[in-house]
Write a structure and sequence with these properties.
With 386 residues, the chain is mostly beta strands. 6% of the residues lie in helices and 31% in strands.
C-alpha cells in the first residue's frame, strides 16, 4: 500500500509541473475497509491554486433550505355588510267605502217600467165642457155615473190640457159632485193607481172636506154600507183641505169603531190612514197621488193599502181583509169627487183639477215590494210619464 502511495505522489509531482494550474489529482475511492472520508488534495506547486475539494454529488449535503419565514397573510377585510334595504312601507289601504244606508229605490221614470191597465191624459180632448162622447170613450163606457152636474170641463194651462171640476158655493154631498166607475176588462189582486191633482185657493181651509177617486171591486161599497166579504169593497181617498187620507170600506171596518162584531142597524163609514209627506200640500200646485192596493188571501187578513205623494211612501195600512172569496178582486176605478160626509160646503166656487190617470203594475226589473209585503219606510216609487 505504501508503495502505491509513493507512486501516486511521484505522478502527482510530475503532473503538477507540466499540467494546468486548475487541475486537481483525486485519489480513487478505497474499498470499504481502507476508504477515506474525503479526497485529499496534494501539495500544490508555486504556480498552482489548490482547488476546493469536490464532494461526489451523492455525498454532498444539500444546503439547508432556510425555514420559510412565516408570513401572516394580510387578512382580506370582510366586505362591509350590505345594509338591509329600507322596507318600502306598505301602501296605506284605501278604506272600504262606508256602506250606503238603505235608501229609497228610485228608478228612471220610463214607461218601459210599467204594465199599464189604464192610462188617460187629455191632449186630444176639446177645450171647454167635457163632452159626453169623449168622457164615455176615455173611461171605458161607464155603466154607472152620477153626472147631474155634467162631466166637468177640459181646461188649458200653457199647452197642457187637464180635467177641471168646479164646485159651486154651497154644494154638498153627492148631488153636487161627480161620480162614475170605469171598469177593467178583468180583475187583479194588486194594482197601483196614480193621478195628478191640484186644489184651488179655498182648500187652505181644512173645513172643506170630501172624497177623491180610488180603486174598488164588486159592488164598490160606500155610503155606510159595510162589505160582507163577498159583495164588494172600495178604497177611495178623502180630503180635509189639502190633507189627503184613505177612505176605505172593508168587512172588518166595524173594529175601527170599537165593536167586536158588526152591530145590526149601525152605519159604518170609511176609514184609513193620513198620507203624511212631511210637509203641507200647497194650493194651486200640482202633486201626484198614488195608492197601492193588495187584496188579502181569502181566509187571511193580509191585505194592505199604501199611499204616496210624488212617489214618496206616506201611509201604510196592513192586516186588512177585503174579501172571503177569490173572485172578488180589483176591477175598476171608483171616480168620486164631492164635498160632504163631514166638513162645510164651500163659500165660493172651488176647483179640483186632475190629469195623467194611470193604473198599472211594475215590471219585474223594478225593485218594489210585491204581493202581500209592504214597501219599507222611505220608499220612492217611479211614476209613469205622459
Amino acid at each position: 500500500m505504501h508503495k502505491l502511495l509513493i507512486l501516486y505522489t511521484v505522478i502527482a509531482l510530475f503532473l503538477g509541473s507540466c499540467g494546468s494550474k486548475d487541475e486537481v489529482l483525486l485519489l480513487p475511492e478505497q474499498k470499504a475497509n481502507d476508504s477515506i472520508s474525503n479526497p485529499v488534495s496534494l501539495p500544490q506547486g508555486k504556480d498552482t491554486v489548490a482547488a476546493k475539494p469536490t464532494v461526489p454529488a451523492d455525498t454532498v449535503k444539500p444546503a439547508p433550505v432556510p425555514a420559510p419565514v412565516p408570513t401572516t397573510p394580510t387578512p382580506t377585510p370582510a366586505p362591509a355588510p350590505t345594509p338591509a334595504p329600507t322596507p318600502t312601507p306598505a301602501p296605506t289601504p284605501t278604506p272600504a267605502p262606508a256602506p250606503v244606508p238603505s235608501s229609497p229605490v228610485i228608478v228612471t221614470p220610463t214607461n218601459d217600467n210599467f204594465n199599464f191597465i189604464f192610462r188617460l191624459s187629455f191632449p186630444g180632448n176639446t177645450v171647454g165642457s167635457y163632452k159626453e162622447s169623449e168622457w164615455d170613450a176615455d173611461w171605458n163606457n161607464p155603466a154607472w155615473a152620477n153626472h147631474s152636474n155634467g162631466y166637468g170641463k177640459i181646461a188649458l194651462e200653457n199647452t197642457n190640457k187637464y180635467l177641471a171640476l168646479n164646485f159651486a158655493a154651497g154644494s154638498f154631498e153627492v148631488a153636487g159632485g161627480y161620480q162614475w166607475q170605469g171598469k177593467f176588462s178583468q180583475g187583479y189582486d194588486e194594482l197601483y193607481f196614480s193621478y195628478r191633482i191640484k186644489f184651488s185657493s179655498g182648500f187652505s181651509s181644512t173645513s172643506l172636506q170630501g172624497k177623491l177617486p180610488g180603486l174598488s171591486g164588486g159592488a164598490s161599497n160606500s155610503g155606510g154600507y159595510l162589505p160582507t166579504g163577498s159583495d164588494g169593497w172600495s178604497a177611495r181617498f178623502m180630503f180635509h183641505g189639502t190633507e189627503i187620507k184613505f177612505y176605505s170600506y172593508y168587512p172588518d171596518l166595524f173594529k175601527v169603531y170599537g165593536d167586536l162584531k158588526p152591530v145590526s142597524g149601525k152605519t159604518y163609514y170609511g176609514y184609513g190612514p193620513v198620507l203624511q209627506p212631511g210637509f203641507t200640500l200647497k194650493t194651486d200646485t200640482w202633486y201626484t197621488v198614488t195608492q197601492r192596493i193588495v187584496m188579502n188571501t181569502p181566509g187571511k187578513a193580509n191585505g194592505l193599502v199604501e199611499g204616496f205623494i210624488d212617489g214618496k211612501l206616506c201611509a201604510v195600512q196592513t192586516g186588512m181583509r177585503f174579501r172571503d172569496v177569490s173572485s172578488l178582486q180589483i176591477d175598476r176605478i171608483f171616480f168620486s169627487t164631492f164635498f160632504g160626509g163631514s166638513g162645510q160646503p164651500p163659500v165660493k166656487t172651488e176647483t179640483i183639477s186632475f190629469d195623467n190617470f194611470a193604473v198599472y203594475t211594475y215590471k219585474s226589473a223594478v225593485s218594489v215590494a210585491r204581493g202581500n209585503t209592504a214597501n219599507p219606510k222611505g220608499t220612492v216609487i217611479p211614476l209613469p210619464s205622459f
